[in-house]
Amino acid sequence: MTYEEALAFLNAPKYSETRPGLGPVTELMHRLGDPQDQLKFVHITGTNGKGSTSSFIERALREAGYKTGLYTSPYIERFNERIRICGEDIPDQDLADITEKVKEASLSMLANGMKEPTVFEMVTAVAFIYFARNNCDIVVLEVGMGGRLDATNIIKESEVSVITGIAMDHMEFLGDSISSIAFEKAGIIKENGITVTCPQDGAAMAVIEKTCREKNSRLVLADTSSIKLLSRDLEGQDYCFGGAEIRIGKLGSYQLANSALAYTALQQMRDRWPGLTEEAILRGLKNAKWPGRLELMRKDPVFLIDGAHNPDGVSALVRSLKEMFPGERFLFVTGVLKDKDYSSMIEMTLPLGEKYYTVTPDSPRALRSEDLREYLKSVGAEAEAFDSIEEAGEKAWSQRDYKTVAFGSLYYIGNLRTVLKKHL
């Protein structure tokens, strides 16, 4: 199997179904020798901030001298980004070779009258095999959706279970209330383990606390309300938390909370992972990178890209923009999925929007750029629709009179990032 054949197989429409449940992935992993049982994990769920928190924790473990695996989704520019060892994407040939093994196991399930796994289940299997083959010391494992019935939850135990902020998202699968969504996400909490979370909505916190009691998991709260910002510029942020002075290279007020949550989780691991000195943790938080999350592509004039794709994420983005650039207005480049609450997302940005460029994300669920333009005009905004992401990106880059911010969906931010990198 070639790399291109592997991607074609994994992206086949027949495997794209979203189907929460551990039955098929359990059978798949069993047929592949259960490589996940050879590994140790930090397991991370939540609505927003999973990827950033994962990157902070992984980099700190790497700075501590451990061989790290990192499994995240979706990717920004290239599929291989989803599976990394010590910051390096899985090589094309390894992805192809392991995918062929997973394909054989999947087809054997079909031949035995079973359901074939979904693409997320198969990619998760590829990741487990790759990490086990390469003898990773520890894997930072990001949940795809929810937690309780997510394919990553096939693991039997974790060094720590981390739950980022919980908000309304994926309601068709996770439920239409904060408590029901929290119940699904709390499903990653393991018996007699450690759970670290941040301040949550009261209903969400009640569910987390109840689950921890039932599973005898020690609950540790990262009190992000105690964060004291020291300084902030386009190079990063300095703040005090938990008696430590912390520097991060990521922008956005929400990254203070994400890194403080990561710091708290890492502190809980230190007695079992002796390389995790305070110095290693602080270096990891400082050096962690996470493309596409309030990422600075240009300083003058400012051009930022952000993967905010639900109301909670856009609220955090708007708050950060107000803090970083008080009183300023922006050219927004945006594309959204039609099944998202894009009206609420757009409404939050209107007080900051000078004009909007609309694009169509690369997804069958995308709202057409023309339809988004008409919606923006209906709420009083100046908007222009573009036929391609490249065309919108090039025109936005050429605008020197505005600070520019792109947001709305990770399904186009990666394509836009590729376009903009040509100018760097």
From TrEMBL:
InterPro entries found in the cross-reference section: Folylpolyglutamate_synth, Folylpolyglutamate_synth_CS, Mur-like_cat_sf, Mur_ligase_C, Mur_ligase_C_dom_sf, Mur_ligase_cen
Mur ligase central domain ranges (all copies): 44-265
Pfam families per record: Mur_ligase_C (PF02875), Mur_ligase_M (PF08245)
Transmembrane segments: none
EC number of the protein: 6.3.2.17
Domain Mur ligase C-terminal residue range list: 292-398
GO molecular function: ATP binding; dihydrofolate synthase activity; metal ion binding; tetrahydrofolylpolyglutamate synthase activity
Superkingdom of this protein's organism: Bacteria
One Gene Ontology cellular component: cytoplasm
Keyword Hydrolase: no
Catalytic activities: (6S)-5,6,7,8-tetrahydrofolyl-(gamma-L-Glu)(n) + L-glutamate + ATP = (6S)-5,6,7,8-tetrahydrofolyl-(gamma-L-Glu)(n+1) + ADP + phosphate + H(+)
Annotated keywords: ATP-binding, Ligase, Magnesium, Metal-binding, Nucleotide-binding
Cofactors, names only: Mg(2+)
UniProt record similarity statement: Belongs to the folylpolyglutamate synthase family.
Protein name: tetrahydrofolate synthase
Organism whose genome encodes this protein: Baileyella intestinalis
